[in-house]
Amino acid sequence: KLGGKDAFLLESIFRKEIWGFVSEPVSEDNERGASTAVIDACERALADMMEEGEEGSDGTASEKERLCTMVRESEREALDRTLVYAKQEAEALDLKEYYQERRLKSLGLDSDWSQEDDILGEGGGRVPGGADYDW
Description:
Blueprint: H1 11-14, H2 18-22, H3 28-52, H4 63-91, H5 99-106, H6 115-119
């Protein structure tokens, strides 16, 4: 569910392992949208199940009806657990490491820069006129 600025991430098309890339959080907005979509889908499905009611609740249910009821209860339980998980994920959005942070770390650009780093030569950057080229 990529949208906005996230839709223009091109790194994934240059990677051999696309699933590793798309399985990690891209941005907080993207994660919020995905969590909201899952929460809404679970809540709608649970509401639809409640509206359907229980057939054969008078005790005369056939074997097939009892099996269907068991499957429906399993589905409700799976939806309930998914809903709880999605809500927990939505509450923890600020604890995740998103694409921009991961990318900056991988490039070694995640630390604060100061002018002293360049003066002391620890910045790893280029020094003007410091190249020893023989043209």
